[in-house]
Each structure stands twice: as structure tokens, then as C-alpha cells.
Specification:
Elements: H1 3-29, H2 36-47, E1 52-55, H3 62-72, E2 77-81, H4 88-92, E3 93-99, E4 106-112, E5 119-123, H5 130-142, E6 144-147, E7 150-153, E8 159-164, H6 177-180, E9 185-188, H7 194-204, H8 218-229, H9 235-246, H10 257-262, E10 263-265, H11 269-285, H12 293-298, H13 300-304, E11 309-310, H14 312-316, H15 321-331, H16 336-341, H17 343-348
Parallel strand pairs: 1-8, 1-9, 2-5, 5-8
Antiparallel strand pairs: 3-4, 6-7, 10-11
Helix pairs in contact: 9-11
């Protein structure tokens, strides 16, 4: 069997993924107007087996977007409204004592919480105390929930989409860095353009009701998630991802001076993993079966913006994470020869 024959099943699956992506976008457009970049990043995270943190002011259809996506994917959906009095057992589930009618003995029975769904909307996640926020950590990373001494497996695929309001800080609990790092992307949901808002106003004030048809099943998504990991990545693409991430660490050799001035803390190894996995998914959605540096470059903002910590100097100068990352992208060469010849990266890539 030659190489082309061995790749035939993957090429067919890649074509199917691209067609499914277009079908999902078509279904979502019946309900959601605009937000093309947000939808693309959500689907890239889904096919990469990642989670998303969405940040935007109220009224931008974040909840509607996520619930509509779950309908397109034929997945079970739970919306959890995070509040200051929410307890961990309210989302994971709890054990109750129940009498067995056959034996007459009492026994513990586990009642599943809303986490036992495939698409989880954690609405206003920064409104609940850290104890309840931490209950999501195990579920997001291990796909399990531990209650008492028993570990309960969650269904696959499992996708957490959390939202938070950037303008209302009173009575909120900022997410710890460890939990932010569990999110593959931090996605900014922005105000719509004029023509988009015009269409939103027209649709939402009429009697029209859009219907959504499922495009993919849960098993289809698992198959496509496995396909994403089989997309080949060149050594140059991996070095480019490493160059971006390692430059955010102020103690690394070759780190630019503006990074030392503007950052207090840089991104960890999970950022490299997410850049590469997201780039693989983006390549497939773009109709390619290999990763290019443009795939990595286009995902640098959502992958890195919540993994770097700006310094007091940056805050006083009005410089945020996105400005730091944008300058980093501009000063990092993409071409293989340029990257390898640059003295900064020769020092950085030494084992």
C-alpha cells in the first residue's frame, strides 16, 4: 500500500470536516448574525478538544450562540448560572440516602448535576466563589467528577464554554491563573457592526422563528477530534510556536526588552500545545492537511491573552495583553531561514 492509499481515509475525513464546518456555520447564521471570528474560534476549540472562555458585555448573544451550537452538534446542553451562593455540589451532583424497597436497607445514590452534559455553559463564571470555580477544574482537565470516594466519568465529547462580564467587577471573583490556563482560548465577543445590528433588530422584533438542524453527532465529533491530532506539523511550525511562547518568559535568553518591561509572567507549555492543536484544526477547516505558520499566528491572541500577566509599567502606559502579543508577532520572523539565523532564537533553542 502506497502513502497516498494510506492517507485516503484521513483525506476523506478532512473533506467531511470542512463540509460539516460550512454546514454548521450555515445553521448558526440562521440565528446568530455576524460574530464570524468568534464562531470560528469556538469550532476550532471544539474540534481540538478544548474549552473556551468568552468575555463580552451583556446582550451580545453569548448564551444564544452556545445553545444554538449545541443544537447543531446534536449534543446534550446544560446552562449553569453562576451566583455567589452556588456550591460545588450544585454543579457536580450529590449523594442522597434512599431506601431500597426490595431489601429494606438504606443506601447512597448519586444524583448527577448539570455537569453531566456534553456542552456546558458556565454563565458569568466570575460571579461564584473560588471553591465552586475549582469544581470545574477536574471536569475540564480529567473529564471526571469525584464525589465522596467515587469518580464518575463524564460523557464525550465534553465542551465547557464559560462567560464573564468585563465591565462589572463588584461582587465578582476573578478566575485564578490555574483555571484560566485550562481554557484553550479566551475569546472576546465585541459589539456588532451597523449592518449586523440592523439585521439583529429586524430578526428579533419579528415573528420569524429559525429552526436548527443537527449536523454532527457526538461520535462524529470524536472521530474528527482524533483526525485533528493526526495532522502533520513541520519542525519549523513547532519552533515558531515555541518562539512565540518562550519570548513571553522574562527570564529566558533572547527575550525582547519590551517583554521584560511589560510582562510580569509568561505563558507555560500548555500554550504551545494549544497553539499547535488549534493550528491543526484551523488547517483542516481551511481545506489543508498540514499546518503553516499563519495558522499559529492567527490563534496567538486567543491562546496567549489569558496566559500572560502584564506589569505595572504596562498598565500605567495603557498597554494590555493584546498589544503585547501583537508586537511580539510583528517582531518574530515567520520564515524558516530567518527564524533559525536570528541570534535571539539560537540562544533560546539551545537544549
Amino acid at each position: 500500500m502506497n502513502t497516498q492509499d494510506s492517507l485516503a481515509p484521513d483525506l476523506a475525513s478532512a473533506d467531511r470536516l470542512q463540509k460539516a464546518y460550512k454546514a454548521i456555520r450555515d445553521q448558526l447564521s440562521r440565528v446568530i448574525v455576524g460574530q464570524d471570528q468568534v464562531l470560528e474560534e469556538l469550532l476550532i476549540a471544539l474540534f481540538s478538544r478544548g474549552h473556551c472562555l468568552l468575555e463580552g458585555v451583556p446582550g451580545l448573544a453569548k448564551t444564544l450562540m452556545i445553545s444554538t451550537l449545541s443544537q447543531c452538534l446534536s449534543l446534550s446542553f446544560s446552562r449553569i448560572q453562576f451566583t455567589p451562593d452556588l456550591m460545588p455540589s450544585d454543579i457536580t451532583g450529590t449523594e442522597i440516602i434512599q431506601e431500597n424497597r426490595d431489601t429494606g436497607f438504606r443506601e447512597f445514590k448519586f444524583l448527577q448535576g448539570p455537569l453531566f452534559s456534553q456542552v456546558i455553559l458556565a454563565d458569568e463564571i466570575n460571579r461564584t466563589p473560588p471553591k465552586t470555580q475549582a469544581a470545574l477544574l477536574e471536569a475540564m482537565q480529567e473529564r471526571t467528577v469525584t464525589v465522596g470516594r467515587v469518580r464518575h466519568k463524564l460523557d464525550n465529547p465534553f465542551f465547557v464554554l464559560a462567560t464573564q462580564n468585563p465591565i462589572e467587577q463588584e461582587g465578582t471573583y476573578p478566575l485564578p491563573e490555574a483555571q484560566q490556563d485550562r481554557f484553550m482560548f479566551k475569546v472576546f465577543v465585541k459589539y456588532p457592526k451597523f449592518d449586523e445590528e440592523f439585521e439583529i433588530a429586524r430578526r428579533t422584533t419579528s415573528a420569524e422563528l429559525a429552526t436548527i438542524s443537527p449536523v454532527l453527532s457526538g461520535q462524529d465529533i470524536l472521530t474528527l477530534q482524533n483526525l485533528v491530532r493526526r495532522v502533520p506539523t513541520s519542525d519549523h511550525a513547532i519552533r515558531y510556536a515555541l518562539a512565540l511562547v518562550r519570548q513571553t518568559r522574562i527570564g529566558e535568553p533572547g527575550t525582547p526588552q519590551f517583554i521584560k518591561d511589560w510582562l510580569s509572567w509568561g505563558a507555560g507549555p500548555r500554550a504551545v500545545q494549544n497553539l499547535l492543536l488549534g493550528a491543526k484544526a484551523r488547517a483542516l477547516l481551511s481545506g489543508r492537511v498540514h499546518v503553516i505558520t499563519e495558522d499559529i499566528k492567527s490563534l496567538a491572541l486567543p491562546v496567549l491573552r489569558h496566559r500572560i500577566l502584564t506589569s505595572f509599567t504596562a498598565v500605567s502606559e495603557g498597554v494590555g495583553p493584546d498589544e503585547v502579543i501583537t508586537r511580539l508577532l510583528a517582531e518574530t520572523p515567520e520564515k524558516e531561514g530567518e527564524l533559525d539565523r536570528d541570534p535571539r532564537f539560537q540562544k533560546m533553542f539551545v537544549a
